[in-house]
């Protein structure tokens, strides 16, 4: 049976099988440790019965007043464990924590070319809130969709009224 549990420091020695995917954003070890120290509740892993890391989610809560929100920093599932509902379950955990923290919404950034993830997020109730130009650096740079889902505290659903114009990365709060 799959176990969903908090991420531990030593998991960083075993998550290369997940991170090798080209669509998975990978970071330096300090970045993961910073998340683990600040937002341990938002860093969850799916582990197989034999101890293999199947996928993980990493996130945080940030923003002031009505911009107080949960953010998905990374979500990834190893290719051999996809379409089993793991990402859906990991997202449900992050959304539940964000509800408990009284966040107004959850947001995330996704490459505009990542049609699988975009359709999954839409299925989970996320909308494209705005386009962030050249958010991902590379050759060439790639735009991101900032996708959002309103939580119960946002009664008027103000957080999910889409912006009509694209923004630049430096304009993101
Ligand atoms: C996107 C990703 C996280 C989905 O993980 P997953 O565990 O396979 O997703 P789930 O099984 O929970 O799928 C939930 C729903 O998303 C949709 N979905 C997921 N993968 C899909 C695919 N390949 N094609 C079509 N729909 C898909 C389906 O509607 C699915 O529900 P269903 O299986 O009941 O039809 C995974 O493909 C991945 O790790 N991709 C690489 C990294 C990435 O792109 N991360 C997101 C960056 S923001």
TrEMBL record:
Signal peptide boundaries: none
Domain N-acetyltransferase: 2-152
Record InterPro entries: Acyl_CoA_acyltransferase, GNAT_dom, NatB_acetyltransferase_subunit
Reaction(s) the record says it catalyses: N-terminal L-methionyl-L-asparaginyl-[protein] + acetyl-CoA = N-terminal N(alpha)-acetyl-L-methionyl-L-asparaginyl-[protein] + CoA + H(+); N-terminal L-methionyl-L-glutaminyl-[protein] + acetyl-CoA = N-terminal N(alpha)-acetyl-L-methionyl-L-glutaminyl-[protein] + CoA + H(+); N-terminal L-methionyl-L-aspartyl-[protein] + acetyl-CoA = N-terminal N(alpha)-acetyl-L-methionyl-L-aspartyl-[protein] + CoA + H(+); N-terminal L-methionyl-L-glutamyl-[protein] + acetyl-CoA = N-terminal N(alpha)-acetyl-L-methionyl-L-glutamyl-[protein] + CoA + H(+)
One GO MF term: protein N-terminal-methionine acetyltransferase activity
Domain of life: Eukaryota
GO CC terms, sorted: NatB complex; nucleus
Name of the protein described by the UniProt record: N-alpha-acetyltransferase 20
Lineage of origin: Eukaryota, Metazoa, Ecdysozoa, Arthropoda, Crustacea
Gene expressing this chain: naa20
